[in-house]
């Protein structure tokens, strides 16, 4: 029976993110769990999950742990792992944990697996499933080294729901006087420019075709931008792009101002999870489409009836001019 | 203030290639891996260009590229990379497979970095790609940092600004398309880069010629670095079945397509 | 601006032969740099079986078994395909024999050769570096102009192939009238196929009498299959890709290919004029090698060994001149390189080939007889003929049903098999005079484009060009009857090193 530690950081408002509750559910399914929390103030979060049946609640708490920072998070993670005698550590894959926990594994002489799609018992040992080569192949692996830290991808498992209560939290002391890093704050694009919406029901992908010469021989970048932004606003969709389009935007040409590298899907970009995806003016080639691995229903609009979407990558391909369709679409959604 | 920047980066198959797993005695591998055209790992490439950009702005700075990969493939990739920016190569002859354990890879790279003559590890910047396009774990740099005693680490970096007092202001990608802004008073630090802000540098034959004088000898000197992966066991590696039955719609007026899409968006 | 001793345009078998010969001198005192436009040096395209005479003579330590996909020739067949039938000729003329040769992948061979060259540290090869043109001053070639850089050199070696920018610049107004488009696929065969590695099949007569085809078996159930579509076969309703599909479906070949999977695909132009297309091989400050200099032998159906050998000959010439302290003038290069070339088997075989194929202009039998005559009499006898415009053929080329594995749409072949792509940049195919395009009813550039990168525009005028589909084969260049296509060197294209 392995000693399982569920490790989560607490948000500034004292709550746990959904991904943390998913990781908790996953940990509980594997056996008896010790909860480890890191944050500025942890009691609220501990109470939120007090009814989960954990054996112990441990925490590293304090101002120094309110924000994500490698030195302090790694020290906290290490301390909690040692305090719990953890053999298996289940944690949500958040940017904060992705930064620090691999270092913790190294410190403890253990191993780490990130972006796990699942961790489950297989032949009486835990096995992790994760993607390799940018979501092109799926591997199932086990490890004998301990501790084994596993970061679980958000959206793969149903989040824990249960009763709150009052948790008995044991604080663990950690010395962090030597860090040279200060977190100054967050930077976000202005609200009307925010095109990445991880919780949107629809991913809208704009491909390089938007910026190419159209049937009349001219480029219509401004109208393209207007149509794309109009649709995103009306449908509350999230914006994705192919590498070729974001490369163009990065070459200083500002062809589509709304598109940056952060919007890139596939290849070196993200692999977002949305129930639906609509692709426009995009070839649908493998390096981009691997980013659609977790998109449920897929439709595409492209003038090229021979594009990748036609070959089993989309549910529906509309062979049509995206400009014309989007004009109509925006009109209907308005 | 001059910087000493060590960039860790290896090779991955050209993203256009069709990839298939095969299982051998040593575990899973890519089919025909040695025959697939290779490129420098994309985010590692961004890290290299950012390093060169930073070095160019601070006289006396130096950039090393530390790379673990099959020697012949490294050599091929250098023919493209060496034309981009000036750097000195430290090469190790070993696997660049996505199925290799990041723990073992980090051990080899840390060892190689310790062996770099003239490097002041107490003041260095360790750059690399946030994640590779092969293993895609985003865990190697942290482990190298730990082995070298560096506790100021940043991942998903898009921007590094050096302030007047030498402090580093760093932007890291976090959830929701936002960036966290942090200030690190001084090196050493680890930065795992995302895309950064710079475009890919154009090929520069002069840079290539100068780089090659050291790159080829470095490759010839490359020590064998096999990875002994203990305790990691793959039970299966499979290609997902993902072919859909595509309904191709032609000759439908734009308005009708729009109506169909609106209905589809509204469905639960 | 940079200065080197020798600058080379293009890295193919010819330049590989040149550099390999140079680097046999351990302390090579010359600074030699080669610029190749493709994204990697190993994206060669050639249906390749070779006797490798010149290659082995100049590189005795070469061990072909080190090169992936290489296998010695075991069986040869020459087959006349007609309709659904096939006649295996009982006798293969000696000039067509590949008996002591090897089946290779050119991409793998060049990758290997390039790796050896780079590893020597004696020369540098830079892919992703298209050469715009040669720098010419006062009638002398002084080096190469890259996109943003000038590289000045004592000697410029032009090995950029039949449609290379530098070669054509030096050709000037000379018009070489014999071209073919070679298109091939590399196929993973089904598990139970009975086809021994090293099998070499050459065909003629199908899907058109003028189309020559081949199927070569590599180890591990991999086969290369392809065709040569000549320039005197002009019908805007047919594309080389369609022809290739129909070729594969011929029962004689389909028995091997059925159930197979497309692995890679590519296309290139072949300059088949041989000696008739022989340009000025040398000039002040430059020398030409390889297919662009007319080395391909259309009679024996070989080009790689010939190209390599001309490169090796130039290599020997350069070493000789350098040791003697002589400059790279036209006269000296003629004496050292051209003389070697004229005195070699490459030249002797080229003379035989010179008139070998003319008979085909009079028809199939005449063509075969003509080839045989020329081959057997070492060029003394041949059947003369001049290229004629083709008659319209009545038989339509049927649509090929797609199986998604080997029989795939043309675009699928690009995406699955050629991985064709191009980064941002300028179009390297342009049309000179829009009026000529508006008047052109046939637009052969559209039907002959190997990648469907050239498409009719909505107004029937200047065609649209999509550089993300271009494989840089150059077919547009020599098919335009108005000579209205500007075909420059650009990056991108094929990303497969198996061709």
Describe this structure in words.
The complex is a heterotrimer of chains A (334), B (268) and C (499). Chain A has 334 residues and is an alpha/beta fold. Helices cover 27% and strands 28% of the residues of chain A. A nine-stranded mixed beta sheet of chain A has the order 7-6-5-8-4-1-2-3-9, sandwiched between helices. In chain A, helix 3 packs across helix 4. The N and C termini of chain A lie far apart (58 Å). With 268 residues, chain B is α/β, with parallel strands linked by helices. Chain B has one domain (4-224): HUPs (Rossmann fold, 3-Layer(aba) Sandwich). Chain B has six helices and 15 strands. Chain B has helices at 42-57, 71-81, 102-114, 140-147, 205-221, 254-266; strands spanning 4-8, 11-13, 21-24, 27-30, 38-40, 62-69, 88-93, 125-129, 153-162, 168-173, 179-184, 189-193, 223-224, 232-238, 247-249. In chain B, strands 11-10-9-12-8-1-6-7-13 form a nine-stranded mixed beta sheet, sandwiched between helices. In chain B, a hairpin with a 2-residue loop joins strand 3 (21-24) and strand 4. Chain B is globular. The model of chain B has no long low-confidence stretch (mean pLDDT 94). With 499 residues, chain C is an alpha+beta fold. Chain C folds into two domains: 2-63 and 105-176 and 274-353, FAD/NAD(P)-binding domain; 179-271 and 393-495, D-Amino Acid Oxidase, Chain A, domain 2 (2-Layer Sandwich). Chain C has 14 helices and 22 strands. Chain C has helices at 13-22, 53-58, 106-120, 165-171, 240-249, 251-257, 304-323, 330-342, 345-354, 364-376, 410-418, 434-439, 444-448, 475-479; strands at residues 2-9, 32-35, 49-50, 71-72, 75-82, 85-88, 102-103, 123-126, 131-137, 140-146, 150-158, 179-188, 199-204, 212-218, 222-230, 261-271, 282-283, 286-288, 429-431, 454-455, 464-465, 485-487. In chain C, strands 1, 2, 8, 9, 10, 11, 17 and 18 form an eight-stranded mixed beta sheet that branches. A seven-stranded mixed beta sheet of chain C has the order 6-5-13-14-15-12-16. The longest helix of chain C is centred in the middle third of the chain and has 20 residues, at 304-323. The radius of gyration of chain C is 22 Å and the shape is globular. The chains are: A alpha/beta (334), B alpha/beta (268), C alpha+beta (499). At the A-B interface, helix 3, helix 4, strand 5, strand 6 and strand 7 of A face helix 3, helix 4, strand 9, strand 10 and strand 11 of B. Strand 7 of chain A pairs antiparallel with strand 14 of chain B, so a sheet runs across the interface.
């Amino acid at each position: 029976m392995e000693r399982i530690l569920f490790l989560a950081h607490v948000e500034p408002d004292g709550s746990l993110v959904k991904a943390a509750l998913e990781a908790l559910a996953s940990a509980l399914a594997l056996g008896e769990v010790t909860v480890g929390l890191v944050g500025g103030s942890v009691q609220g979060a501990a109470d939120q999950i007090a009814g989960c049946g954990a054996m112990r609640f441990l925490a590293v708490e304090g101002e120094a742990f309110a924000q994500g920072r490698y030195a302090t998070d790694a020290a906290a993670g290490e301390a909690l792992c040692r305090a719990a005698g953890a053999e298996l550590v289940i944690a949500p894959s958040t940017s904060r944990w992705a930064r620090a926990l691999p270092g913790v594994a190294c410190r403890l002489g253990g191993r780490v697996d990130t972006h796990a799609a699942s961790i489950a018992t297989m032949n009486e040992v835990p096995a992790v499933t994760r993607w390799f080569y940018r979501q092109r192949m799926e591997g199932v692996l086990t490890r004998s080294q301990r501790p084994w830290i596993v970061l679980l991808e958000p959206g793969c498992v149903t989040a824990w729901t249960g009763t709150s209560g009052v948790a008995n939290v044991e604080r663990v002391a950690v010395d962090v006087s030597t860090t040279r890093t200060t977190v100054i704050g967050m930077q976000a694009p202005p609200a009307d420019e925010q095109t990445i919406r991880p919780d949107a029901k629809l991913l809208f992908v704009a491909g390089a075709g938007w910026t190419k010469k159209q049937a009349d021989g001219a480029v219509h970048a401004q109208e393209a931008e207007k149509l794309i932004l109009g649709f995103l606003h009306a449908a509350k969709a999230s914006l994705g792009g192919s590498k070729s389009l974001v490369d163009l935007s990065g070459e200083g040409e500002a062809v589509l101002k709304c598109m940056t590298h952060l919007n890139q899907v596939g290849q070196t970009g993200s692999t977002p999870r949305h129930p639906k995806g609509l692709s426009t003016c995009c070839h649908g080639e493998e390096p981009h489409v691997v980013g659609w691995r977790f998109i449920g229903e897929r439709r595409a609009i492209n003038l090229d009836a021979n594009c990748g979407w036609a070959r089993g990558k989309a549910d529906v391909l509309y062979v049509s001019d995206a400009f014309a369709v989007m004009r109509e679409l925006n009109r209907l959604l308005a | 203030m001059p910087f000493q920047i060590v960039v860790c980066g290896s090779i991955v198959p050209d993203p256009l290639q069709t990839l298939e797993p095969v299982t051998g005695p040593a575990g899973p591998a890519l089919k025909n891996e040695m025959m697939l055209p290779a490129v420098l790992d994309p985010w590692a490439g961004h890290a290299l260009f950012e390093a060169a950009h930073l070095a160019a702005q601070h006289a006396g700075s130096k950039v090393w590229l530390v790379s673990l990969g099959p020697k012949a493939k490294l050599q091929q990739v250098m023919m493209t990379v060496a034309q981009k920016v000036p750097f000195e190569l430290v090469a190790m002859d070993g696997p660049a497979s996505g199925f290799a354990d990041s723990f073992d890879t980090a051990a080899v790279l840390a060892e190689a970095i310790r062996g770099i003559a003239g490097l002041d590890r107490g003041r260095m910047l360790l750059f690399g790609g946030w994640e590779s396009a092969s293993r895609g774990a985003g865990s190697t740099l942290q482990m190298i940092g730990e082995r070298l005693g560096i506790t100021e680490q940043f991942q998903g970096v898009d921007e590094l600004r050096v302030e007047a007092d030498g402090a580093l202001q760093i932007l890291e990608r976090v959830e929701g398309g936002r960036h966290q802004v942090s200030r690190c008073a001084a090196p050493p630090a680890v930065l795992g880069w995302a895309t950064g802000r710079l475009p890919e540098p154009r090929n520069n034959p002069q840079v290539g010629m100068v780089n090659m004088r050291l790159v080829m000898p470095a490759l010839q000197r490359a020590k064998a670095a096999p990875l002994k992966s203990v305790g990691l066991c793959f039970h299966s590696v499979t290609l997902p079945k993902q072919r859909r039955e595509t309904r191709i719609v032609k000759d439908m007026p734009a308005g009708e397509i729009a109506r169909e899409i609106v209905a589809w968006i509204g469905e639960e | 601006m940079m200065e080197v001793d020798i600058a080379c345009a293009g890295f193919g078998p010819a330049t590989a032969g040149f550099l390999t010969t140079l680097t046999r001198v351990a302390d090579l005192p010359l600074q030699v740099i080669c610029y190749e436009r493709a994204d990697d040096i190993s994206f060669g395209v050639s249906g390749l079986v070779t006797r490798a005479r010149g290659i082995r003579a100049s590189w005795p330590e070469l061990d072909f078994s080190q090169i992936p996909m290489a296998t010695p020739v075991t069986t040869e067949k020459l087959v006349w395909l007609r309709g659904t039938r096939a006649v295996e000729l009982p006798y293969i003329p000696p000039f067509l024999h590949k008996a002591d040769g090897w089946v290779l992948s050119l991409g793998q061979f060049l990758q290997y050769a390039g790796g050896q060259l780079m590893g020597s540290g004696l020369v540098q090869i830079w892919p992703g570096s298209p050469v715009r043109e040669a720098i010419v001053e006062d009638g002398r070639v002084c080096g190469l102009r890259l996109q943003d850089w000038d590289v000045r050199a004592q000697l410029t070696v032009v090995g950029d192939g039949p449609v290379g920018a530098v070669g054509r610049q030096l050709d000037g107004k000379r018009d070489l009238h014999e071209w073919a488009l070679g298109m091939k696929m590399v196929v993973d065969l089904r598990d139970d196929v009975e086809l021994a590695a090293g099998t070499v099949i050459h065909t003629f007569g199908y899907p058109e009498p003028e189309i020559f085809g081949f199927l070569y078996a590599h180890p591990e159930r991999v086969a290369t299959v392809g065709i040569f579509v000549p320039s005197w076969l002009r019908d805007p309703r047919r594309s080389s890709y369609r022809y290739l599909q129909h070729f594969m479906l011929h029962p004689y070949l389909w028995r091997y290919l059925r159930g197979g999977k497309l692995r890679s695909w590519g296309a290139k132009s072949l300059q088949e004029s041989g000696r008739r297309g022989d340009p000025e091989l040398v000039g002040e400050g430059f020398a030409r090698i390889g297919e662009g200099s007319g080395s391909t032998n259309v009679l024996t159906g070989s080009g790689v060994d010939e190209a390599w050998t001309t490169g090796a000959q130039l290599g020997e010439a350069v070493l000789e001149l350098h040791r003697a302290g002589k400059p790279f003038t036209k006269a000296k290069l003629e004496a050292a390189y051209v003389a070697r070339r004229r005195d070699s088997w490459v030249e002797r075989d080229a003379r035989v080939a010179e008139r070998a194929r003319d008979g085909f202009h009079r028809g199939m039998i005449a063509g075969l007889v003509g080839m045989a005559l020329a081959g057997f009499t070492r060029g003394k006898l041949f059947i003369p003929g001049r290229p004629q415009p083709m008659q319209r053929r009545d038989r339509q080329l049927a649509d090929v049903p797609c199986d998604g594995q080997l029989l795939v749409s043309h675009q699928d072949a690009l995406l699955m098999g050629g991985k064709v792509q191009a980064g941002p940049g300028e179009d390297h195919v342009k049309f000179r005079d829009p009026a000529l395009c508006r008047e052109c009813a046939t637009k052969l550039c559209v039907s002959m484009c190997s990648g469907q990168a050239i498409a009719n525009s909505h107004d029937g005028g200047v065609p649209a060009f999509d550089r993300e589909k271009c494989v840089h084969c150059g077919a547009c260049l020599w098919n335009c009857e108005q000579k209205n296509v500007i075909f420059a060197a650009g990056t991108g294209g094929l990303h497969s090193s198996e061709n």
